[in-house]
Amino acid sequence: DVLTSGSKYSEQRTEVSTGAAYVHDASTFSLGVTNSTEKDYTSNTLNLGLGQDFFGDLTTLSMGYVVGDDRVMINGDEDQPVQFERDQTHQRFSLGLSQVATKNWVIASNVESVIDAGYLNNPYRSVRYYDGTGAGWQAERYPETRNSDALALRSIYYLPYRASVQLQAKAYQDSWGIKAHTYELRYVHPIARQWIFEAKARTYSQTQANFYSDIFARKDFQTYLGRDKELSTFSSINAGLGVTYKINQPLFGVFDKSSINLYWDNMQFTYDNFRNATQSKAPSTGTEASYKVGEEPFYAFNANVIRLFFSAQY
């Protein structure tokens, strides 16, 4: 979007959050508040949670409620710093159940329902359409409500040699017509008392939103218009490896337990109906574009993410 219809930008976000939990017998009550601020986006979120153990702590029921109040803006200039501002509201309801089936097997399920309302699209993003000679651009328009539901099932089995295998499946659908499925396999293997090795594989696929199109037949082709690649039909594969070294002795006289962690993830995204519009945009050298509008190759990208961090308990 930045390369085809935007401009250079930089941003900085400051987030402050606080939370507390109260434990009484087999019940846990939690409360959290978060404030996030950018030059063109502010967010305030309240989290409420309740957890209850049953049957000798073999069964755990959890419930959660999150409400958010956000403001979306467009940056301007010194004379008019904010050219546009609209509100968003978000509500998330969740219900989870975890069961210790045997001494080696734990199963869990989670259901989540989200209600979004207000200005839900990106004020900087545009959609493209045929203007007779090439591609024209206009601001995208989304519905001002969105309801979504998700179901997740997870199973963890502990192997005799202290390792574990985790399987997870998720299903998602919303009122915009998107349906998605996620499957994940994770294996954790400890060695001695200090080392923990981890490997995982994850797949994700989704269908497009009802109002999405890579390019529309004309300007104002329909009431709602979207070209965000996250609304298109696409799939992704994620493979990862990790290693943790546990320091099982007090450190610096302060930390009771600590660890050094290194994780690597490779992610591959393939879009089925979102084209690379930069390939049909004539370069600044004045030469012709590589492809005709609407005939560009479909977009895809790979990414490698490396995380190295230290964690401690005191």
Helix percentage range = under 10%
Shape: globular
Report the span from N to C terminus. Answer: 45 Å
Mean pLDDT: 93
Largest sheet: 13 strands, antiparallel
SS element count, helices: 1
Radius of gyration: 24 Å
Q: What are the segments in which pLDDT stays under 50 over at least 5 consecutive residues?
A: none
Write out the strand line-up for the largest beta sheet, numbering strands in chain order.
1-2-3-4-5-6-9-10-11-12-13-14-15
What fraction strand?
over 45%
Structural class: mainly beta
Quaternary state, please? single chain
The succession of helices and strands, N to C, reads HEEEEEEEEEEEEEEE
Q: How many extended strands? A: 15
Architecture overview:
The chain has 314 residues and is mostly beta strands. It has 1 helix and 15 strands, in the order H-E-E-E-E-E-E-E-E-E-E-E-E-E-E-E. The protein has one helix at 2-5, and strands at residues 14-24, 27-37, 41-54, 59-75, 82-100, 105-118, 126-130, 135-139, 145-158, 164-174, 179-191, 195-206, 234-247, 257-275, 298-313. It has a 13-stranded antiparallel beta sheet, with no helix packed on it. A two-stranded antiparallel sheet has the order 7-8. A hairpin with a 2-residue loop joins strand 1 and strand 2. The longest helix has 4 residues, at 2-5. The radius of gyration is 24 Å and the shape is globular. The model has no long low-confidence stretch (mean pLDDT 93).
